[in-house]
Amino acid sequence: MKLPRGTFDVLPGTVERWQYIENQLREISKRYNYKEIRTPIFEETELFKRGVGETTDIVQKEMFMLEKRGKEQFTLRPEGTAAVVRSFVTNKLYGSPNQPVKLFYIGPMFRYERPQAGRFRQLHQYGVEALGSEEPAIDAEVISLAMSIYQSFGLKKLKLVINSLGDSESRAAHREALVNHFKPVAHELCQDCQNRLEANPLRVLDCKVDRNHPSMATAPSILDFLNPASKAYFDQVLLHLDALGIEYVIDPTLVRGLDYYNHTSFEIMSEAEGFGAITTLCGGGRYNGLVEQIGGPATPGIGFGIGLERLLMALENEAVLPEVDDSIDVFIVAQGNEEVEKTATRLLQLMRLEGLAADRDYLGRKFKGQFKAADRMQARFTVILGDEEVERGAAALKNMSTGEQIDVPLSAVADTIVAKLKEEVQ
User: Fold this and answer.
1) pLDDT tens across 176-203, in order?
2) Mapping DSSP to helix (H, G, I), strand (E, B) and coil, where does residue 239 land?
3) Where does residue 257 rank: exposed (0-12), middle (13-18), buried (19+ CB within 10 A)?
4) Model's pTM, two decimal places?
5) Cα torsion angle, 236, 238, 239, 245, sign
6) Are 202 and 178 in contact (CB under 8 A)?
7) Which sign does the torsion angle of CA 297, 79, 284, 264 carry?
């Protein structure tokens, strides 16, 4: 059986890197007081059509729809925001006394797109959603959280790009200007852009095929169509970012690829050499109106998503990914009669109950083979048991790095190893 195209196995020796990243993400989320939420990996297809948008590439081209049974149609989640907002509505979190509701998630997403470097059909995302506040300060907090994550991993070559998509009035005026601008050259654009010009002209600016078409450079800027309220909101977001000391670049062409965004839109990119053509690490923005679309009360929201595969690529590219430590504390080297085997089994369990990472031989190897196994597992100590040791109620304890070997009563083996490991740390 072959590995499904666009997926990968995370094996021991590599999975520790994922665990390191996930632990760090949870720690930083806690500092910002974001609570973890876990939603199903599949939802009703209508949720994504309504939430993500009928005209988006995700809905039109990339959704993994499950086989329909009866009247129900389900889809593997292609992104996290719609599912979190659905849960927010389903569980009436808008009634929580703690507002805004600040949530984060970590989990797999699924998109049926052409696999390429850093893009997979099963991908993994960390994301945050802050629901219930329309203060510019929360926009700045969400962006600060995203930047803090990358900086906490040691990444330095970052660029924050930000834009405002305005409110519905601003977007309507900009939409009309875009249609008038692109219509004369519509026949020169790709078929997707021709379709978008009718359904969602803002997304023409996000096209990867026509990005170098001359009309893109002269397209009307959304910033020229912001009404006073939208402009004031954007200015306040920037003031908060300035107060936080976060550098940014304003890019009027930044629109993001999902229909639910309005007001603040942002991306964090890698400027490291050799990272590849696709430099975006993180994207997000404000989505006032999405909760209502999914059946809840009027509730403003803002969030972002980080692709963990791309985060790993960035860490590797800037050489800040820590070495994997898959060593163990102790390996039992045992050979002898039945009593030796029973003693090894009991001692192994006792050490594990004391919090030690411990293992033993299960292949019937001789002493030499067992010591080689201990070396491969990078055991810090070995406990050596034979007929003679068990008869006198003691074991030989060997420090594998120094070669020092001492006799220790069987009843004190675990405590002795714990004490020596503490000495090493000090």
Assistant:
1) 888 888 888 888 888 878 887 877 777 7
2) helix
3) middle
4) 0.88
5) positive
6) yes
7) negative
